Amino acid sequence: MFSFHLFCRANVTVTDLEEVQDLLKMNIEKNQHLVSGSIQAKVLKWGEDVTDFLPAPDFILMADCIYYEESLEPLLKTLKDLAGLGTFILCCYEERTMGQNPEVEKRYFELLQRDFKLQKVPLDEHDEEYRSEDIHIFIIRRKKMNISS
Ligand SMILES: C[S@@+](CC[C@H](N)C(=O)[O-])C[C@H]1O[C@@H](n2cnc3c(N)ncnc32)[C@H](O)[C@@H]1O
Protein backbone atom coordinates (compact mmCIF):
# COMPACT_ATOMS: atom_id res chain seq x y z
CA MET A 1 0.00 0.00 0.00
CA PHE A 2 1.41 3.38 -1.02
CA SER A 3 0.39 6.32 1.03
CA PHE A 4 1.68 9.79 0.29
CA HIS A 5 0.33 12.93 1.89
CA LEU A 6 1.80 15.28 -0.65
CA PHE A 7 -0.27 18.33 -0.28
CA CYS A 8 0.07 19.22 3.36
CA ARG A 9 2.02 22.46 3.41
CA ALA A 10 4.07 21.54 0.38
CA ASN A 11 5.94 24.18 -1.58
CA VAL A 12 4.90 23.33 -5.12
CA THR A 13 6.29 24.51 -8.46
CA VAL A 14 4.21 23.65 -11.51
CA THR A 15 6.12 23.73 -14.77
CA ASP A 16 5.42 23.70 -18.47
CA LEU A 17 6.43 25.46 -21.67
CA GLU A 18 6.31 29.25 -21.97
CA GLU A 19 3.15 29.19 -24.10
CA VAL A 20 1.02 27.53 -21.42
CA GLN A 21 2.10 29.63 -18.42
CA ASP A 22 -1.14 31.64 -18.45
CA LEU A 23 -3.12 28.40 -18.28
CA LEU A 24 -0.99 27.17 -15.36
CA LYS A 25 -1.57 30.45 -13.54
CA MET A 26 -5.31 30.23 -14.17
CA ASN A 27 -5.33 26.66 -12.76
CA ILE A 28 -3.42 27.81 -9.70
CA GLU A 29 -5.98 30.57 -9.09
CA LYS A 30 -8.93 28.21 -9.48
CA ASN A 31 -7.40 25.66 -7.08
CA GLN A 32 -5.91 28.08 -4.55
CA HIS A 33 -8.39 26.94 -1.88
CA LEU A 34 -6.79 23.45 -1.98
CA VAL A 35 -3.27 24.73 -1.33
CA SER A 36 -2.07 25.14 2.21
CA GLY A 37 1.60 25.69 1.36
CA SER A 38 2.90 27.71 -1.57
CA ILE A 39 2.48 27.23 -5.30
CA GLN A 40 4.10 28.94 -8.27
CA ALA A 41 4.21 28.43 -12.05
CA LYS A 42 7.53 28.43 -13.90
CA VAL A 43 8.85 27.68 -17.37
CA LEU A 44 10.79 24.45 -17.63
CA LYS A 45 11.51 23.09 -21.08
CA TRP A 46 12.70 19.49 -20.74
CA GLY A 47 16.41 19.10 -21.33
CA GLU A 48 17.23 22.68 -20.35
CA ASP A 49 19.00 24.04 -17.28
CA VAL A 50 17.32 23.14 -13.97
CA THR A 51 19.50 25.22 -11.63
CA ASP A 52 16.45 27.32 -10.66
CA PHE A 53 14.67 24.19 -9.40
CA LEU A 54 17.42 22.83 -7.18
CA PRO A 55 18.03 21.52 -4.55
CA ALA A 56 16.40 18.26 -5.61
CA PRO A 57 12.69 18.24 -4.75
CA ASP A 58 11.12 15.63 -2.45
CA PHE A 59 8.55 14.77 -5.12
CA ILE A 60 8.23 15.16 -8.86
CA LEU A 61 4.74 14.54 -10.25
CA MET A 62 4.60 13.74 -13.94
CA ALA A 63 1.16 13.36 -15.46
CA ASP A 64 0.78 12.24 -19.04
CA CYS A 65 4.21 13.41 -20.20
CA ILE A 66 5.22 10.35 -22.24
CA TYR A 67 3.77 10.82 -25.67
CA TYR A 68 6.25 11.89 -28.32
CA GLU A 69 9.59 10.48 -29.38
CA GLU A 70 11.60 13.74 -29.61
CA SER A 71 10.85 14.57 -25.99
CA LEU A 72 12.16 11.33 -24.46
CA GLU A 73 15.87 12.17 -24.18
CA PRO A 74 15.27 15.76 -22.94
CA LEU A 75 12.61 14.57 -20.46
CA LEU A 76 14.95 11.92 -19.06
CA LYS A 77 17.78 14.46 -18.83
CA THR A 78 15.52 16.72 -16.77
CA LEU A 79 14.62 13.85 -14.45
CA LYS A 80 18.30 12.96 -14.01
CA ASP A 81 19.29 16.59 -13.43
CA LEU A 82 16.48 17.18 -10.94
CA ALA A 83 16.03 13.98 -8.95
CA GLY A 84 18.27 13.20 -6.00
CA LEU A 85 18.50 9.88 -4.18
CA GLY A 86 15.73 11.03 -1.83
CA THR A 87 13.34 12.17 -4.58
CA PHE A 88 10.15 10.24 -5.32
CA ILE A 89 8.96 10.61 -8.90
CA LEU A 90 5.29 9.77 -9.33
CA CYS A 91 4.65 9.15 -12.99
CA CYS A 92 1.20 8.44 -14.35
CA TYR A 93 0.20 8.05 -17.95
CA GLU A 94 -2.61 6.82 -20.09
CA GLU A 95 -1.61 3.95 -22.33
CA ARG A 96 -2.17 5.02 -25.93
CA THR A 97 -2.46 2.60 -28.81
CA MET A 98 -2.47 5.08 -31.72
CA GLY A 99 0.50 5.70 -34.03
CA GLN A 100 3.97 5.62 -32.47
CA ASN A 101 2.74 5.70 -28.88
CA PRO A 102 3.38 2.06 -27.92
CA GLU A 103 7.01 2.32 -29.17
CA VAL A 104 7.49 5.68 -27.42
CA GLU A 105 6.31 4.20 -24.10
CA LYS A 106 8.51 1.12 -24.51
CA ARG A 107 11.57 3.25 -25.34
CA TYR A 108 10.90 5.59 -22.44
CA PHE A 109 10.89 2.74 -19.92
CA GLU A 110 14.03 1.19 -21.47
CA LEU A 111 15.95 4.45 -21.19
CA LEU A 112 14.52 5.28 -17.77
CA GLN A 113 15.69 2.02 -16.23
CA ARG A 114 19.34 2.83 -16.94
CA ASP A 115 19.32 5.36 -14.10
CA PHE A 116 16.09 4.75 -12.21
CA LYS A 117 14.25 1.89 -10.52
CA LEU A 118 10.50 1.54 -10.93
CA GLN A 119 7.67 0.28 -8.77
CA LYS A 120 4.23 -0.09 -10.32
CA VAL A 121 1.30 1.00 -8.17
CA PRO A 122 -1.34 -1.77 -8.42
CA LEU A 123 -4.69 -0.74 -9.87
CA ASP A 124 -6.55 -1.55 -6.66
CA GLU A 125 -4.54 1.19 -4.94
CA HIS A 126 -5.50 3.87 -7.48
CA ASP A 127 -8.28 6.33 -6.78
CA GLU A 128 -11.57 4.40 -6.79
CA GLU A 129 -13.37 6.89 -8.98
CA TYR A 130 -10.66 7.61 -11.55
CA ARG A 131 -8.88 4.25 -11.84
CA SER A 132 -8.85 2.64 -15.25
CA GLU A 133 -7.08 -0.39 -16.79
CA ASP A 134 -5.25 1.84 -19.28
CA ILE A 135 -3.94 4.33 -16.72
CA HIS A 136 -0.67 3.39 -15.04
CA ILE A 137 1.14 4.87 -12.07
CA PHE A 138 4.79 4.27 -11.26
CA ILE A 139 6.92 5.31 -8.32
CA ILE A 140 10.38 6.00 -9.67
CA ARG A 141 13.57 6.39 -7.62
CA ARG A 142 17.12 7.12 -8.69
CA LYS A 143 19.49 4.20 -8.68
CA LYS A 144 22.56 4.62 -6.53
CA MET A 145 25.56 5.25 -8.76
CA ASN A 146 28.49 2.80 -8.71
CA ILE A 147 31.49 5.07 -8.46
CA SER A 148 34.44 3.20 -9.89
CA SER A 149 37.83 4.64 -10.68
C1 LIG B 1 -0.51 15.51 -22.44
S1 LIG B 1 -0.13 17.05 -21.68
C2 LIG B 1 -0.34 16.69 -19.93
C3 LIG B 1 -0.60 17.94 -19.16
C4 LIG B 1 -0.85 17.71 -17.65
N1 LIG B 1 0.30 17.19 -16.98
C5 LIG B 1 -2.05 16.85 -17.46
O1 LIG B 1 -1.93 15.69 -17.08
O2 LIG B 1 -3.16 17.32 -17.73
C6 LIG B 1 1.63 17.12 -21.83
C7 LIG B 1 2.24 18.42 -21.32
O3 LIG B 1 3.66 18.37 -21.55
C8 LIG B 1 4.07 19.66 -21.96
N2 LIG B 1 5.30 19.52 -22.75
C9 LIG B 1 5.43 18.96 -23.97
N3 LIG B 1 6.69 19.02 -24.40
C10 LIG B 1 7.39 19.65 -23.41
C11 LIG B 1 8.76 20.02 -23.29
N4 LIG B 1 9.63 19.76 -24.26
N5 LIG B 1 9.16 20.63 -22.15
C12 LIG B 1 8.24 20.88 -21.16
N6 LIG B 1 6.93 20.55 -21.22
C13 LIG B 1 6.51 19.96 -22.34
C14 LIG B 1 2.92 20.17 -22.81
O4 LIG B 1 2.94 21.58 -22.93
C15 LIG B 1 1.71 19.65 -22.05
O5 LIG B 1 1.23 20.56 -21.08
UniProtKB/TrEMBL annotation:
Record-linked InterPro entries: Methyltransf_16 (IPR019410), SAM-dependent_MTases_sf (IPR029063)
Cellular-component GO terms for this entry: cytosol; protein-containing complex
Recorded superkingdom: Eukaryota
GO molecular function: methyltransferase activity
A GO BP entry: methylation
Gene3D superfamilies: Vaccinia Virus protein VP39
Keywords noted in UniProt: Methyltransferase, S-adenosyl-L-methionine, Transferase
Protein name in UniProt: Protein-lysine methyltransferase METTL21D isoform X2
Organism the protein comes from: Python bivittatus
Taxonomic lineage: Eukaryota, Metazoa, Chordata, Craniata, Vertebrata
Gene: VCPKMT
